[in-house]
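User: Sequence recovery, please. Input:
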């Protein structure tokens, strides 16, 4: 299997933008999929315009016309129906590889995680759909394949918005369960490179759920690096994860979006260690962990 033409949908998002940047710097021929009424603009980028409702036949025709080999989906993972339409279009058009909107902080293949975070069930639903689709025969084309990538917390982005439980501007650190729990996180540019590596190794990554990280750290290690980079002492606020989840999870289930973000933040620290996990793919993809202090210095400089 060879991949030449790659299409990305969601190219202006938090993750989509760095993935698009990585794709444009690669050897692949890159297209961005844009809905008809979207205001997004992609300078010096080939654009495939599709209906707002992602009509399967019309999207398939557009993908077929450009002979798209791989479709990368970086829309919100909660958009399950939209992803299924895109997968159906990929199947119909002869696309070889789909990467669904997996990514993210938590492990959608973990039953306890799916119980804790219904949001993850949507990602599992999409992956289960791909498992069914991969069985289907196609005239004149091989079977559709997929790769799901789980990255842990978006590390550099997460430091700017509290996702890692640090308020960098306010110099506060919310430390969970003593702060010595190892967790996996990935810088956005690193995730972009992981996507490229997957497309460059289509056989090795075919129909697999893969885990990567650029950092395998504890909150206390992050705190030490933050204090070194800023020259300031952070106020330490200790939290018990179990007690915090008891407070915020009921609010999340009642539709509170801030509470959902807090559950993701906590769970992405206490239950997201990929180092010894089956499917951990750093070595196979040729990806190396990145320097923690360098990453934090860049975030502090930008803030």
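Assistant: Recovered sequence (303 residues):
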């Amino acid at each position: 299997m060879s991949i030449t033409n790659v299409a990305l949908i969601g190219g202006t998002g938090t993750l989509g933008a760095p993935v698009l940047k990585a794709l444009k710097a690669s050897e692949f021929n890159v297209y961005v999929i844009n809905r008809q009424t979207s205001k997004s603009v992609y300078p010096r980028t080939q654009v495939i315009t599709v209906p707002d409702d992602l009509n399967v036949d019309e999207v398939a025709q557009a993908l077929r016309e450009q002979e798209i080999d791989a479709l990368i989906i970086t829309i919100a993972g909660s958009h399950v129906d939209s992803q299924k339409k895109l997968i159906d279009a990929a199947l119909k058009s002869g696309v070889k590889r789909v990467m669904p909107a997996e990514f993210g902080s938590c492990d959608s293949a973990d039953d306890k995680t799916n119980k804790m975070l219904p949001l993850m069930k949507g990602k599992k639903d999409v992956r289960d759909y791909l498992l069914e689709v991969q069985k289907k025969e196609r005239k004149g084309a091989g079977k559709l394949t997929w790769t799901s990538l789980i990255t842990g917390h978006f590390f550099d982005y997460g430091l700017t918005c509290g996702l890692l439980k640090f308020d960098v501007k306010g110099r506060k650190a919310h430390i969970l369960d003593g702060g010595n729990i190892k967790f996996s996180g990935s810088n956005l540019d690193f995730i972009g490179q992981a996507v490229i590596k997957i497309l460059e190794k289509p056989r090795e990554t075919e129909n697999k759920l893969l885990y990567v990280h650029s950092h395998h750290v504890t909150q206390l290690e992050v705190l030490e690096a933050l204090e070194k980079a800023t020259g300031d002492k952070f106020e330490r606020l200790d939290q018990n994860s179990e007690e915090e989840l008891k407070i915020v999870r009921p609010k999340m289930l009642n539709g509170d979006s801030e509470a959902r973000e807090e559950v993701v933040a906590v769970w992405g620290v206490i239950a997201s260690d990929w180092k010894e996990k089956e499917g951990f793919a750093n070595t196979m993809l040729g990806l190396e962990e990145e320097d923690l202090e360098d990453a934090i210095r860049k975030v502090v400089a930008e803030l």
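The domain at 5-152+186-211 is CATH 3.40.50.720 (Rossmann fold).
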